[in-house]
């Protein structure tokens, strides 16, 4: 009887052990299934989040393109006038006043960039506006500003002329916009922020295109610069008003490099841009005791502004308070003053307006 009881108990223990193993296996399987389900749920949630983010990015990109499209298609048709009246206050005859943005919109700057004599003038004006006056422009004037800038970049890429000027302009404009967005705040920029984001992208794209600009070298069978006599090559160097242009030209041939090291060339360049008082403050001598005019030029331009030189500029009539573009061909043929002047001697009333003077006219 005792033996049979022990056998029965042993059989029960074995059955209980097998049951516990089955329960453990079932629990393990359940845990695995739960982990798999959790991972599936996590993957599904991450996929949903990625899809939502992608859709949001796509919506933002479409909205940005739509805003830029509306910004271009709904652009205001600006008046292309050759002259405007600059009034700084209200009178019985005239009400209101002329702002910088209004003058920028009304004067024909789009056509001015097509004139090689006025191209540098317009570029310098855009650069000064980018550095200090961009926020003072109205939304329409800012729109016109970037439209003209785009035309300038296209012209430089097509003509392959003056790329350095435009690189400096884009560099200053990009830096100014970054400061306005980060330090001052977005509220100072007129218009939708997506439009400004697109404009920043355009600036980066233009800079990339200009940096990768490859100059096309045309093979000429005629007379080249190096074929000219030395006195003619020297005369050409003396026509340059920018020292960097002389440095770049000196790298073309060994002869031009020799001519570019002439002391008299750099002396005349220093005398053209700077005053004698400025020479004394930054006098630089060579080992032989002579004045190093070349080093003097690049030192002085760090401390003092260079003399600006333009082929053609805006004119301001002091008698009529009118700002105008003067067509010299019409002036020679028909004695046209460029505006309806009422003075007895209109020529003595007109004065050339530098880009900085243009901005100063509208500071109240």
UniProtKB/TrEMBL annotation:
Gene3D superfamilies: 1.20.1280.50
Basic and acidic residues: bias regions: 1-14
Subcellular location per the Swiss-Prot or TrEMBL entry: Nucleus
Top-rank taxon, per record: Eukaryota
Pathway terms, separated by semicolons: Protein modification; protein ubiquitination
Record carries keyword Acetylation: no
Transmembrane keyword on record: no
Region (Disordered): 1-23
Main location: nucleus
GO biological process, one term: protein ubiquitination
Stretches of the chain forming a coiled coil according to its record: 26-56
GO CC annotation, single: SCF ubiquitin ligase complex
Alphabetical UniProt keywords: Coiled coil, Nucleus, Ubl conjugation pathway
Function: Substrate-recognition component of the SCF (SKP1-CUL1-F-box protein)-type E3 ubiquitin ligase complex. May play a role in accumulation of expanded polyglutamine (polyQ) protein huntingtin (HTT).
Protein name as catalogued: F-box only protein 25
């Amino acid at each position: 009887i005792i033996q049979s009881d022990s056998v029965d108990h042993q059989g029960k223990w074995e059955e209980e052990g097998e049951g516990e193993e089955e329960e453990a296996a079932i629990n393990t399987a359940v845990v695995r299934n739960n982990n798999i389900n959790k991972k599936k749920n996590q993957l599904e949630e991450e996929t949903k989040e990625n899809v939502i983010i992608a859709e949001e990015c796509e919506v933002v990109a479409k909205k940005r393109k739509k805003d830029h499209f509306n910004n271009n298609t709904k652009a205001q048709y600006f008046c292309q006038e050759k002259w405007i009246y600059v009034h700084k206050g209200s009178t019985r005859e005239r009400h209101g006043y002329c702002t910088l943005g209004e003058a920028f919109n009304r004067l024909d700057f789009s056509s001015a960039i097509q004139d090689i004599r006025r191209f540098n003038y317009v570029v310098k004006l855009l650069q000064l506006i980018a550095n200090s006056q961009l926020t003072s422009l109205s939304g329409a004037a800012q729109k016109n500003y970037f439209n003209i800038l785009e035309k300038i970049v296209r012209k430089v890429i097509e003509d392959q002329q003056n790329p350095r000027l435009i690189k400096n302009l884009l560099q200053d404009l990009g830096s100014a916009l970054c400061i306005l967005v980060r330090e001052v705040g977005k509220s100072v920029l007129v218009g939708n922020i997506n439009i400004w984001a697109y404009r920043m992208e355009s600036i980066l794209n233009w800079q990339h295109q200009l940096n990768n600009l490859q100059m096309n070298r045309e093979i000429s069978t005629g007379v080249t610069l190096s074929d000219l006599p030395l006195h003619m090559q020297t005369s050409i160097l003396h026509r340059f008003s920018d020292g960097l242009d002389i440095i770049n030209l000196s790298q073309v041939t060994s002869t031009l490099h020799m001519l570019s090291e002439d002391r008299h060339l750099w002396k005349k360049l220093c005398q053209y841009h700077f005053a004698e008082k400025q020479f004394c403050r930054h006098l630089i001598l060579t080992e032989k005791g002579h004045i190093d005019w070349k080093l003097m030029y690049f030192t002085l331009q760090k401390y003092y502004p260079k003399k600006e030189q333009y082929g053609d500029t805006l004119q301001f009539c002091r008698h009529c308070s009118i700002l105008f573009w003067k067509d010299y061909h019409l002036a020679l043929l028909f004695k046209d003053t460029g505006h309806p002047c009422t003075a007895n001697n209109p020529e003595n009333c007109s004065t050339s307006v530098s880009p900085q003077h243009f901005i100063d006219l509208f500071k109240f």
